[in-house]
Write a structure and sequence with these properties.
The protein is mainly alpha-helical. A 3-stranded antiparallel beta sheet has the order 1-3-2. Helix 2 crosses helix 4 and helix 3 crosses helix 4. The longest helix has about 35 residues.
Length: about 160
């Protein structure tokens, strides 16, 4: 009986830690979004998705895993090159890296997983199509794999 109580307590603690991490991350994302003035002028989700995919492929050659933090840093450096301030670039990398990576996994371009504790784990991405040359070729491969149209890949 004590073992059951201990296990239940451990599970409750794990859930509490995961929820606290989720809330902290949500606050971080909301703050980042509030601080990005240039984002409103350059809102183009499809462009962000393709840029994130390109960053993933550049950093993770031949489909090797890449940390999401590295993708965000790379996207931030691109924003600086395009004229954003350091603060804007950091927020841009954070937001576009996070949001675009979710779309890449949802649409079938990448896989995502986390290693480590829920509130301190490292998030990894992996390109599912390392042998194709272009984003459009990856779209075609996904459409074939899923038996859907190219338009449905972007849904």
């Amino acid at each position: 009986m004590l073992f059951s109580l201990k296990a239940a307590h451990d599970q409750a603690e794990d859930r509490r830690l995961r929820e606290a991490a989720r809330i902290r991350h949500q606050v971080d994302v909301e703050e980042a979004m509030a601080n990005v003035s240039s984002r409103m002028h350059r809102e183009n989700l499809e462009e962000d998705i393709q840029r994130c995919w390109s960053a993933l492929r550049k950093l993770g050659r031949d489909g090797s895993p890449v940390e999401l933090a590295d993708v965000r840093t790379y996207l931030s450096s691109i924003a600086v090159e395009e004229g954003a301030s350091e603060d804007e670039a950091e927020a841009e990398g954070e937001i576009s890296g996070f949001v675009a990576s979710l779309f890449l996994t949802h649409r079938g371009f990448a896989e995502i997983w986390q290693m480590g504790e829920a509130n301190q784990g490292r998030i990894f991405l992996r390109d599912r199509w390392p042998k194709v040359e272009t984003f459009d070729e990856a779209r075609v491969a996904i459409a074939r794999e899923r038996g859907i149209t190219l338009e449905e890949v972007e849904a």
